[in-house]
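[09:14] KT: can someone run the structure on this one? pasting the chain below
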Amino acid sequence: MVYGWIGGKHACVDLTGVSPLVGLGSGVFTVGQAALKAAAAKVVKHEKACNDNQHVFIPFAFDTFGFLAPDVVELLTRVQRVMHSNVMTPRSMDVVFKRISFAIQKGLAAQLVARLPSILM
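[09:31] RB: done, structure tokens below
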């Protein structure tokens, strides 16, 4: 939940990470297709409930190759601007995107390591 997001309305944020390799056999590979499809599914599933409660719904969808859906980029850019206006260091301008990128990489690495055969560990 992000309080006071747009026009005093709070925003419900749903985090969704997907592999861009899901469904590759079904057609041509398009960058970001899996994340955009996941975001659209989340909107269908949750937007009405959020609107009924006077909230805005933001699907935070990304893929494990680093693609961020447009709503995510907008959210993070806004967070980054707020941080920069309050912190004002040269590093503060890109820290949000770097941290998100690192968190995605760390989560992916943990998933890969968990799938390694126990003989290799």
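[09:33] KT: thanks! The chain has three helices and three strands.
[09:34] RB: yep, looked fine to me
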